[in-house]
Automatic annotation (TrEMBL):
A Pfam family reported for this protein in Swiss-Prot or TrEMBL: Peptidase_M20
Residue ranges of domain Peptidase M20 dimerisation in the record: 210-307
Residues of the signal peptide: 1-23
Coiled-coil stretches noted in the UniProt entry, renumbered to this chain: none
UniProtKB keywords: Carboxypeptidase, Hydrolase, Metal-binding, Protease, Signal, Zinc
Top-level taxon of the source organism: Bacteria
Lineage, top ranks: Bacteria, Pseudomonadati, Pseudomonadota, Alphaproteobacteria, Caulobacterales
Gene3D superfamilies noted in UniProt: 3.30.70.360, Zn peptidases
PROSITE patterns hit by this protein: ARGE_DAPE_CPG2_1
Keyword Metal-binding listed: yes
Record bears the keyword Secreted: no
NCBIfam families: PRK06133.1
Cofactor: Zn(2+)
Official protein name in the record: Glutamate carboxypeptidase
């Protein structure tokens, strides 16, 4: 960056501070702070990635929290430790920073990953070219660390023009936040805006819609019998389950709209016994709630009749997140984010994806929400997961500036 451009950016920064809605040009101070933060940011990221914290790993989750909480306290934040709402999960953390302004801003991140204990021993943090790799590196440890450093920059710049900034560290997002649901509901209602630190999508996309998700459990009860001696006495639950699965065959398995996928099957106990019980799980994603209901109705209708006599089929529904539908409040936030990014000479695209998040709960509560604000990543929920290192500093700048912009002009609920 040339010297003249630095000077212009500084002038622009002054203009921005008095007229944030314009958000024109680069804020040289914030950019410099984001660049300065980078080494520490990546060092902390490596530390948190190298702690296994799959959902339900209480010890691992507590270790990650123990690494983050002292840093949040050092930023002047008040820490509330909130027990999970169901057993088997580590505590959630609510960190609050109080300022002198009027905006109430909520940042949500999650510290759980989809990777079980022992993953880090086989696959730890590494850097290859422009990609950082490791379990949860982008989903969502990169976002959590970004949130912490945005707060650090605000503190370093002595920015306090907000009533409060609340940072929730959720410990069960990858299972639909069953341990945090009431807490999220309370927090989204008590804030003017929700900023979600899920990873951005490649090449540089923020998230303005998300699919809702639900699981249908299909349980078949039959009758056990020796497969050689008296197979005629058995009622094969596995065979009945296979017939029941036909009910979802006609729904799409991929695409931007409704998707319906068989994800687990369990049946039988021994090779020579007719299975007494069988369970299949169907994972459903949709952009409209009505689509979720439609699939449930089809599966329940099918369950009313069986092909294998004397078997019974029950269907139960587990909701994870409702959809975050396209909406004007989110689009308005996205436009503000794009204006900030344009000040860097970068283009920020908007999009959506099938991964659910807490932003849908904000949307349901009528609180404007913007999602996908973490660093850009890909290969989520697989060993291909990566975080794009080129996005780290622009995304930290974006989040910090967005908080400053929203502080001056909080969206109207
Ligand atoms: Zn995530």
């Amino acid at each position: 960056m040339g010297a003249s451009r630095v000077a212009m950016a500084a002038v622009a920064a002054l203009l921005v501070s008095t007229a944030p809605a314009l958000a024109a040009g680069k804020d040289a101070k914030v950019w410099a702070a984001a660049e300065k933060a980078r080494a520490g940011q990546l060092d902390l990221l490596e530390q948190v990635v190298n702690i296994d914290s799959g959902t339900g790993d209480i010890e691992g989750g507590r270790k990650v929290t123990a690494l983050l909480v002292p840093r949040l306290k050092a930023l002047g934040m008040t820490i509330e430790t909130v027990p999970a709402e169901i057993p088997g999960l580590p505590e959630n953390t609510v960190a609050t920073l109080t300022g002198s302004g009027k905006a109430r801003i909520l940042m949500i991140g999650h510290i759980d990953t989809v990777f079980g204990p022992g993953t880090v021993a086989k696959w730890s943090y590494s850097v290859e070219g422009d990609h950082a790799r490791g379990p949860g590196v982008a989903d969502e440890k990169g976002g959590v660390v970004e949130g912490l450093y945005a707060l650090q920059i605000l503190r370093d710049l002595r920015f306090t023009n907000f009533e409060r900034i609340t940072f929730l560290l959720d410990t069960s997002e990858e299972r639909g936040s069953p341990g945090t649901r009431a807490l999220i509901d309370r927090l989204v209602r008590a804030h003017d805006v929700e900023l979600n630190l899920e990873p951005g999508d490649a090449p540089d996309v923020i998230t303005v819609w998300r699919k809702g998700s639900m699981t249908l459990n299909i349980d078949v009860k039959g009758r056990a019998a020796h497969a050689g001696v008296a197979p005629q006495d058995g009622r094969n639950a596995a065979v009945e389950l296979i017939h029941q699965l036909a009910a979802v065959e006609s729904f799409p398995r991929s695409g931007d709209g409704l998707t319906v996928n068989l994800t687990t099957i369990q049946a039988g106990t021994r090779h020579n016994i007719i299975p007494e019980a069988a369970r299949g799980q169907i994972n459903i994603r949709a952009r409209q709630k009505a689509d979720l209901d439609r699939v449930e109705a089809a599966v329940k209708e099918s369950a009313k009749s069986t092909v294998v006599p004397d078997t019974t089929v029950t269907v139960s529904r587990e909701n994870a997140f409702p959809p975050l539908a396209n909406n004007p409040a989110t689009d308005a936030l996205a436009a503000r984010a794009q204006a900030i990014y344009a000040g860097l000479g970068l283009k920020l695209a908007t999009g959506g994806n099938g991964g659910a998040s807490q932003s849908a709960l904000a949307y349901e509560a009528g609180t404007p929400a913007l999602d996908g604000l973490g660093p850009v990543g890909g290969g989520f929920h697989s060993e291909k997961e990566f975080m794009d290192l080129r996005s780290v500093t622009p995304r930290l700048y974006l989040l910090t500036k967005l908080i400053m912009d929203l502080s001056a002009n909080p969206p109207k609920k």
